Structures are given as structure tokens and as C-alpha cells.
User: Fold this.
Amino acid sequence: MDGPLQTDVDALLARCDFPVAGTSVACGLSGGPDSSALVALARRAGLGVTAWHVDHGLRPSSGAEAEAARAIAARLGAGFELRRVFVEPGPNLEARARDARYEALPPEVLVGHTADDRAETVLFNIGRGAGLAGAAAPHAGVRRPLLGLRRFETRALCEQLGLTTVRDPMNDDPAFARVAVRNEVIPALARALGRDPVPLLNRHAELASQALEVIADLAAGLDPTDAVQLTAAPRAVAAEALRTWISGTAGSPPSAASIDRVLDVAAGRSVATEVTGGHRVARRAGRLRIEARPQ
Assistant:
């Protein structure tokens, strides 16, 4: 990379959060502009990169997309790993495909989420009642070095580098809630506010994340199965203790409404309640326990 292009890449790199040069990392590579820019910038940062592509087999073009990702990795001097997973068509396809993808990727994988992705996640999570943790837009088990960049910048970088990227048609399908947030909600919010909401939503996520760190430290000292401790603790602390406990057992974070119902169980206002993942939380002798939902 020489001349103005090198300067542009270095300017983008200065706003990224990569590990120190020489570190070996795994990068998720779909073949789209964001993940391709991730691999390009990681290589520029002096990292040893292996690009991981997950083929869901959901489209006839998936094989060609995998080969495009392989070509991008080779062009950028990165290693390449291909994993194939099977996702049954049906309801919640977007979420199930995402879960299958992360299960196939190695721990602490780097992904190409930008500030735009984080803003969309904040709105999506608020809409589903995910509470403070959702507003912070975290994603356990992955690292997101490109949160300081915008989506238009990753696309421009790929164009400058002459990378032939692929376009996922699911990104334009309004049947998916996240696509509707991207193409309808955020533009409507921009018109209503008279300004770009993406920096505002990212700032909101940062503030929520800082508050969550304080709450999480307090929640770590709380026994989420002890009904007396839960009812005596501040609601935010009790809710975080329950969220961590339920997420670890049920496999996905509970909604804010589910947390409210579990707190009612802890306070003795109800005997049991259903939560995410085919489970329920019940109280017996002052202790909470997670059980399989009765059939």
C-alpha cells in the first residue's frame, strides 16, 4: 500500500481497536465489505490473520460466496478456514443462522461490526425489551475492532483496495427485523432529529456499558438463587445477577419482562414463570431454580 491509499488506511486504522502487532487472530469473513475491511486492516496492523468463513447453505450462491471469501483472504495475505453448517428454514431464521455461525467460529473471533451495526443493535435490543445490557449492545465471545468506523468507510476502503466483495441478499430483506431497523427506523429517526443518530446511539451504548460494569461488579457478589438477597438488592443489581444466571443456563439472555416476572417469583408474588430457551424459574424454600418447562 503506497501513497494516499496508505495514508487513508492508516487513518482508518488509528480509529480501530486491534491487538498488538504480531498477535495471531481469527477474523470472521463473510466476503462482504465490512468483514473484508476487517481482514485488510488487521493485516495492516501487523497481525497474523486467519479468515474464517461460515457457509450456512441457505442460498444457491453460498458456494460462490465462500470462494469469493477465499479469494479475498488470499489477496490480503491471510489464512483461510471454511466451515459449513446446516440451518433449518423456518421462523427466527436470522437469529438461528447467527447462533450457528458463532458456534462454528473460534473463541474470541474478531468480527467486522461497525458503528452502524452497533446503533442498529441498540435499537433492536431496546425494541425487544433487553434492558440495560441490550442498550450497551455487547456480544460475548467476540471482539469488534471496527466500532470506530462507519459502514460507508469500510465500503470505500474495499473499493480503494480493488476487492471484489459479495452482497448478502438477506441484508435487503425487510422480513428481517434488523433490516427494517436499518432501512426504515434509523432513516426515520434521522429525519425526526435532523441529524445522524448513529453517533448518538453509539454514545448511548458506551454510557450504558459503563453503568453496566458498575452494576455487574455489584451483581457478582449476589447469589441469584437466594430470594431474600434478590428482593433486598437494588433492582438493577438483582436484574443483572438474574440475567447472567439465566443466560448461562438457558443459553440466551432473558428479556426485561422475563426479569420482572422472575423478581415477582423471588418476592413470592408468583410461584414460577417461563423464561427463554424452554425453561422456567421456580421458587422452593426461599431458593430459585431453573427447570425444564413442563410439556
User: Anything to note?
Assistant: DSSP finds twelve helices and eight strands in the chain.
